[in-house]
Amino acid sequence: RIAAVQALGLYSGDGEAAIPALLEMLASESDQSMRNGLIYALKNLGRNNQDVANAFMKLLDGSGREQSQILTYLSDFGPLMAPLTPRLIELLGSPDRNTRMYAARTLGSIGSAAKDAVPALTKAQEDTDSSVRSYAQQALRNIQGGQGTM
To answer: How far apart are alpha carbons 57 and 144 in whole angstroms?
Structure first.
């Protein structure tokens, strides 16, 4: 099952038809390896799909490894993640460097719709980590320049 889901995620054709079934599977799946495969497939097939973006937003409140996996994928959805702006602003204050970095990257991918994040991103330019600072600077350029997708 896992291999089939992962292969579907590599499919470059029109996989939109599979998205509802994959979302349903993700909602009920408890096996973490299978969930990882489903998340990967959905990320590749549903970058322009609001239902997938919504599902990923819900998963962001998960724990540990799954949250980290979701964070790495959120910027692929660009402006579809705009409703997540307040949560991403919170995550800029995380003690985890990767969380702060991916939150900044996603805010930048949202573009001007993430304008409420400007104060937090301005502060993030002073982060102790150079990658976080760099992503915060790029995010500010994208937001203030009206661009999306980093």
So the answer is: 24
Mind listing the pLDDT tens digit for each residue in 66-122?
787 898 899 999 999 999 999 999 999 999 999 999 999 999 999 999 999 999 999
Phi and psi (nearest 5°) for 146?
80, 15
Of 68, 63, 106, which is closest to residue 85 (Cα–Cα)?
106
Per the structure, how many domains does the chain have?
2
As a whole number of angstroms, the distance between CA 28 and CA 72 comes to 22
In this structure, what CATH number is given to the domain that contains residue 137?
Answer: 1.25.10.10
What backbone torsions phi and psi does residue 149 show, to the nearest 5 degrees?
60, 110
Straight-line distance from the first to the last Cα atom of the chain, in angstroms, rounded to the nearest whole number: 33
> Contact at 8 Å (CB) between 131 and 104?
no
